[in-house]
């Protein structure tokens, strides 16, 4: 796999570095640090002086950035893969997305310092924008990742399952994991009058159908060497996923990104975006 690791010197970005020890050796590992160099905010400043000030700030930030990249290289696992360092200027989120596309990355790793959910929805943090626009899978780490043995994988349908299998066939994890497949079914009332017993039977049939769907996926994951468990529950997707994550306490929440795109998706959100704000563990979103 081709990995793009975006670092900014925060504690969260160092956690992204440490998480590499749980991933398979990369075919290519690109380290990217983006300098968001501030422009002088004094409108009456002489242009020559403003440019000189900007150049000085840029040079200092470049020196700090190069030292950061060298520090990151020294912390990489011995078998992380061939490393290439990149130091760029611009909007961090935009440059990360651009580099992921240019280098055809299979996975972007980024630490999430995060804003509050409301502010982040409308303004966008780096991790939120990368999740929205990246052309590949995104691994977001809000904090410490102690191990990678248990994965919660919610599936929203056959398309989700196909994408999950496609990603996992690339052998992204260093060792096989225990994967809990979770299917969430909406609690809907039939359009015709039914008694409580009939309603319960309809729910049971829906759950059996979901379990049948995940049985096929489980067989394919088992063939890849993973241990698989299955869960089918009723409820709203976001609440059900977060409830199961709290109960199972997984090391990683892995899910597909579906639904809205672009600005509409950023403002209104999708299940994966909503889960990002409240997930109790790192989140890996595949496309």
- Tell me the series of helices and strands, N- to C-terminal: EHEHEHEHHEEHEHEHEHHE
Compute the separation of the termini in Å: 15 Å
Number of domains: 2
DSSP, total strands: 10
Q: What is the CATH class designation of the largest domain? A: Alpha Beta
Helix content: 40-55%
Globular, elongated, flat, extended or rod-shaped: what is the shape? elongated
Q: Can you say what the CATH homologous superfamily of the largest domain is? A: HUPs
Query: Segments where pLDDT lies below 50 for 5+ residues?
Result: 115-124, 259-269
CATH structural architecture of the largest domain: 3-Layer(aba) Sandwich
Helix count from the secondary structure assignment: 10
Q: What would your notes on this structure say?
A:
Helix 6 runs parallel beside helix 7 (196-223). It is built from ten helices and ten strands. The radius of gyration is 22 Å and the shape is elongated. The chain folds into two domains: 1-145, HUPs (Rossmann fold, 3-Layer(aba) Sandwich), CATH 3.40.50.620; 148-287, Rossmann fold (3-Layer(aba) Sandwich). Helix content is 45%, strand content 21%. The relative contact order is 0.14. Strand 6, helix 6 and strand 7 form a beta-alpha-beta unit. It has a ten-stranded mixed sheet, sandwiched between helices. The protein has 287 residues and is α/β, with parallel strands linked by helices. It starts with a strand and ends with a strand.
């Amino acid at each position: 796999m081709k990995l793009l690791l975006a670092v900014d010197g925060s504690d969260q970005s160092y956690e992204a570095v440490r998480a590499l020890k749980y991933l398979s050796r990369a075919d290519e590992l690109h380290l990217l640090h983006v300098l968001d160099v501030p422009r002088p905010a004094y409108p009456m400043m002489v242009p020559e002086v403003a440019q000189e000030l900007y150049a000085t700030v840029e040079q200092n930030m470049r020196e700090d950035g190069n030292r950061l990249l060298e520090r990151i290289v020294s912390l990489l696992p011995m078998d992380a893969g061939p490393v290439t360092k990149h130091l760029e200027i611009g909007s961090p989120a935009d440059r990360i997305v651009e580099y992921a596309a240019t280098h055809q990355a299979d996975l972007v790793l980024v630490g999430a310092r995060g804003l509050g959910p409301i502010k982040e929805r409308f303004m966008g943090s780096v991790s939120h924008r990368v999740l929205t626009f990246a052309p590949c899978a995104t691994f977001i780490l809000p904090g410490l990742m102690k191990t990678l043995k248990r994965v919660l994988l919610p599936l929203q349908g056959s398309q989700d399952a196909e994408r999950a299998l496609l990603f996992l066939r690339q052998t992204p994890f260093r060792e096989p994991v225990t994967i809990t497949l979770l299917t969430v079914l909406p609690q809907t009332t039939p359009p015709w009058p039914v008694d409580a017993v009939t309603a319960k039977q309809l729910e049971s049939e829906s759950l059996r159908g979901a379990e049948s769907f995940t049985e096929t996926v489980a067989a394919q994951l088992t063939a890849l060497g993973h241990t698989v468990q299955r869960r089918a529950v009723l409820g709203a997707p976001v609440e059900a996923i977060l409830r199961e994550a709290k109960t199972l306490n997984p090391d990683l929440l892995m899910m597909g990104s579906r639904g809205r795109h672009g600005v509409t998706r950023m403002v209104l959100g999708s299940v994966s975006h909503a889960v990002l704000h409240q997930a109790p563990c790192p989140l890996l979103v595949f496309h």
